[in-house]
Specification:
The protein has a single domain, classed as Hypothetical protein YwqG fold, CATH 2.30.320. It is 20% helix and 28% strand. It is built from 7 helices and 18 strands. A hairpin with a 2-residue loop joins β5 and β6. The radius of gyration is 19 Å and the shape is globular. The two termini are 20 Å apart.
């Protein structure tokens, strides 16, 4: 669920869930962005883009798994996003390069390699030192598409909410997810087909994507749906989600980032 105005979000939560549960659910909101090509006078946001060459510091090796180079899917300019993210961005990693294993590999090879953590990588780079780095063969290069990052406030999917997160009537609902589905379901922001950074992922597979540990749900970094214009896709209506454990995100350790592909 996404909102252009945080006050509207808090008001909707209170009216639909009651004062206490509404406050608890609203407290789970995260700031994020919708990433779209600039239109109607909007400009590209910093150096954010889909596809194109990577922006890496000199000497940074191109990521690979068992000798197969990964493909660069996006670059996110966190310096340009920092004013909106505020405390949601505890460190300043500069540019984030998002790589994953190309799904166009032969099925048997892709399935074997995609099981490991090295099948995706998020590599930060100092904007002052980063240089355009072309993908080595046989990694695919996608058309460079600058994007505008539109500020939004996002609430978690119902399946991202656990029973201890929100107070609910246990005689009326089988769980917190049931309460959110009933009360908030018609406010679906329809971002499941959108490119999004930070915030929350929009997916009915949320409980597989935002894994929880002792520090809470994983931090959502990037959502990449299939894109025919760019030439990438992950199965039937597939989407790639990049996340990172909350503790690693707070420390700026992007080596712990992971990717999940979900499709119908």
């Amino acid at each position: 669920m996404r909102f252009d105005d945080a006050d509207d979000m808090r008001r909707e939560c209170a009216e639909r869930l009651g004062e206490k549960a509404g406050r608890q659910f609203a407290a789970m909101a995260r700031r994020g962005f919708l990433l779209d090509p600039p239109t109607d006078g909007a400009r590209a946001t910093g150096r954010c883009r889909l596809g194109g060459p990577a922006l890496l510091e000199p000497g940074t090796p191109w990521p690979e798994v068992e000798g197969i180079p990964l493909s660069l899917h996006a670059v996110v300019d966190t310096d340009a996003l920092a004013p909106w993210l505020g405390d949601h961005l505890p460190t300043r990693p500069g540019l984030l390069n998002f790589f994953s294993l190309d799904p166009d590999l032969p099925y048997e090879q892709y399935s074997r390699l995609d099981d490991g953590p090295e099948a995706c990588r998020v590599i930060p780079a100092d904007p002052a030192r980063a240089v355009e780095t072309t993908a080595p063969a046989p990694a695919r290069s996608y058309p460079a598409t600058p994007v505008h990052a539109a500020e939004v406030t996002m609430l978690p999917d119902s399946w991202d909410v656990e029973d201890d997160d929100v107070e609910f009537d246990r005689d009326e609902h089988w769980g917190a997810a049931s309460l959110i589905l009933d009360a908030m379901g018609d406010l679906d922001g329809n971002t499941s087909g959108s490119h999004c950074a930070f915030g929350w992922p929009d997916t009915s597979y949320a409980f597989w994507v935002t894994h929880r540990d002792d520090d809470g749900p994983a931090v959502h970094l990037l959502q990449l749906p299939e894109n025919g214009d760019l030439g990438w896709g992950w199965g039937d209506a597939g989407t790639m989600y990049f996340t990172i454990p909350a503790k690693a995100f707070a420390a700026g350790d992007f080596s712990k980032a992971r990717a999940e592909m979900r499709c119908c």
